[in-house]
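Data deposition worksheet. Section B asks for the primary sequence of the deposited chain exactly as it was used as input, without tags or linkers unless they were present during the calculation. Section C holds the resulting structure in token form. Section D is free text for depositor observations; keep each observation to a single sentence. Incomplete worksheets are returned to the depositor.
Section A, Depositor: J.P.
Section B:
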Amino acid sequence: MHSFKRWQFWVLFAAVVVALAAAALPSFSAVAGSPAPTATPVITDDQVNAIAHTLYCPVCENTPLDVCGTKACAQWRELIRQQLQQGWTKEQIQQYFVERYGARVLAAPPRKGFWWLAYVVPPLAILAGLYLLYRSLKAWYKPRKAHAGESTAGATPSPPQPEEDEYLRKLEEELRSRR
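Section C:
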């Protein structure tokens, strides 16, 4: 096995560096001489549908834009694709549709102005319903209070006396007489 001397190693190293630089030089001159072509980003159907899912079809009632099968919706999804390729954000695309078709195209109403009621009223209605249910159940299981004129201080409540019903009295007498 032949061992390199130090100066031979440096000569070989310099030759490798010069060879790599010569190989890379044409690509550097091409980059410096002409601008690189700008590649348009490839927008997938998943990216389009992620935004289309947040929008409702302006033509069809209660149909998200990502599942609507009309030709108009296909065109709107293609418009979303083009806007994404141009660098638009989700919010910009949603605003574009709101400006043209109104806030009804949004899957979730905006959290401003009159639309706040859509976020506030349902929880308040549920809480009010739970409160009414609680009060009703509490009143249902609560023992009946004594009549207004009676004093309950120190006395044990007596069971209420059934009212005399003439029909029941005659029925009981009839049953006793048959024995």
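Section D:
The helical segments are 6-33, 45-52, 71-85, 90-101, 117-141, 166-177.
The longest helix spans residues 6-33.
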